[in-house]
Fold:
Amino acid sequence: MDQENLKLTGLKMEYSFLSEQIIKRFEMRQKIIQLTLTIAAAFLGAALTKNVPPSVALVFPPIAALIEIEWFYLEKRQMQTIKYLRKLEKKIPELELSWENFKDLRMNSRFHVRPLSGIFLFSQLMAVFIGVLIYDTGINNWSFNYNLTVPFILLLFIDLVSILITLKLVWKIRSLHNA
Structure:
C-alpha cells in the first residue's frame, strides 16, 4: 500500500507541475501577441509617415513569420502537455472531473486559437498593403507605388513567402487542435 501512495503522490506532483507549465505557456503566448502587435504598430506607423518610404512596412512580414514559428512551437508543446495531462487525470482518482475535461465538455478551445494566430496573418497583409503605397504630393493622397525596383520586388517576394509560411503554420495549429 505504501508503494501505491508513493506512486499517487508522484503523479499528483507531476500533474501540478505540468498545470503550472500550461499557465506559463499561456502567459508566453500573450507576450508574443503583444510583441507582434507592438512591432507591427512601429513598422506600420513609420511607413505611414510622410517623410519615410512606405516600403519600410515590407520589412515586417518576415519578422512576423519568425515570431509565428515561435508561436507554433509553444502551441505544439501546449497541446502535447494537455494530452499528457488528460492521461494523468485518468490515473488520479481524486480528479474525476478536471479542468481539461470540463473545458472539453463546455467549450471548444480551437475557436480562440485561430483568431489569435490570425493576428500574424492580418498584420502581415496590412504591412504589404501599406508597403505598396506611396504618398503622392501632387494629388495630396496615397496611391499605389508603380516604381518597381529590384529591392522592392525582392521584399515583396520575401513577404509572399513569409505569408505562405504563416498560412501553413496557422493550418498546422488548427490541425493540432482537431487531433
About this structure: Residues 2-178 form one domain. Residues 2-47 form the longest helix (46 residues). The chain has one domain: 2-178.
